[in-house]
């Protein structure tokens, strides 16, 4: 699962990234409200941890922008402990509120609770993704094509999920590296090309019709084509 942390205290942001990553999550960090709002609106996140006191845009503004677009769970962090601030955040659409200072254990427990709740109520994300004769069962982490199970590794499955969620969109190597591997893409690194090649061997080679295509100079796209 992917979490966005919007926190202007860089040491705290780094601490949360480290702790949440060690707990099994993929974590992006923004240190101001403008970047946080952009990432929240453009990225695909399962949860946003959002500080109130931010430069550029405060947490309430970021929350308002986010709620106008999607229903991702939001845990707000703040040094403000006033009841009025908690009421304002919850009324604006925050799912939970945690005052500073806090223990990482408490934050992690709240994150896990929100993710469980979000999974139960999420109606914008189907549990089965389909395109043509390709089907991905997300809870069972099972991929099939024409009824035949595809023997995918964990990374290959995550890569295919991203392609299927963004079907018809050309995804650059940089975006794939960031979304699936949580790394900054280095042009001297061929990890993305190697992974796509291996995925294509399992996804397309045994079948007559190709679904995963290379767009020269731009990246890759999953789509149905009449060839």
From TrEMBL:
Domain Response regulatory: 2-115
GO MF, one annotated term: transcription cis-regulatory region binding
Pfam family, one: Response_reg
Residue ranges occupied by any OmpR/PhoB-type domain in the UniProt entry: 126-224
DNA-binding region: 126-224
InterPro entries, per database record: CheY-like_superfamily, CusR-like, OmpR/PhoB-type_DNA-bd, Sig_transdc_resp-reg_C-effctor, Sig_transdc_resp-reg_receiver, WalR-like, WH-like_DNA-bd_sf
Any one GO cellular component localisation term in the record: cytosol
SMART domains: REC, Trans_reg_C
Keyword Glycosyltransferase: no
GO biological process: regulation of DNA-templated transcription
Extent of the signal sequence: none
UniProt keyword list: Cadmium, DNA-binding, Phosphoprotein, Transcription, Transcription regulation, Two-component regulatory system
Residue list for modification 4-aspartylphosphate: 51
Stored PANTHER family: REGULATOR OF RPOS, TWO-COMPONENT RESPONSE REGULATOR
Protein name: Response regulator
Lineage, broadest ranks: Bacteria, Pseudomonadati, Pseudomonadota, Betaproteobacteria, Burkholderiales
């Amino acid at each position: 699962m992917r979490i966005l942390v919007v926190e202007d205290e860089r040491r705290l942001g780094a601490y949360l990234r480290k702790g949440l990553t060690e707990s099994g999550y993929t974590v992006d960090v923004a240190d101001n409200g403008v970047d946080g709002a952009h990432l929240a609106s453009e990225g695909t996140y399962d949860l946003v941890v959002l500080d109130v006191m931010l430069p550029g845009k405060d947490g309430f503004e970021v929350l308002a922008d986010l709620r106008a677009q999607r229903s991702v769970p939001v845990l707000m962090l703040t040094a403000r402990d006033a009841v009025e601030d908690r009421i304002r955040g919850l009324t604006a659409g925050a799912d939970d509120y945690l005052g500073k200072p806090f223990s990482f254990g408490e934050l992690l427990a709240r994150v896990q609770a929100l993710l469980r709740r979000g999974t139960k109520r999420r109606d914008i994300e189907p549990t089965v993704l389909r395109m043509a004769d390709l089907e991905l069962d997300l809870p069972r982490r099972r991929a099939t094509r024409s009824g035949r199970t595809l023997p995918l590794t964990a990374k290959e499955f995550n890569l295919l999920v991203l392609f299927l969620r963004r079907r018809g969109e050309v995804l650059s190597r940089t975006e794939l590296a960031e979304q699936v591997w949580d790394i900054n893409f280095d042009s001297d690194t061929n990890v993305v090309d190697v992974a796509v090649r291996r995925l294509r061997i399992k996804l397309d080679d045994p079948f007559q019709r190709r679904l995963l295509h290379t767009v020269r100079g731009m990246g890759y796209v999953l789509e149905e084509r009449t060839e």
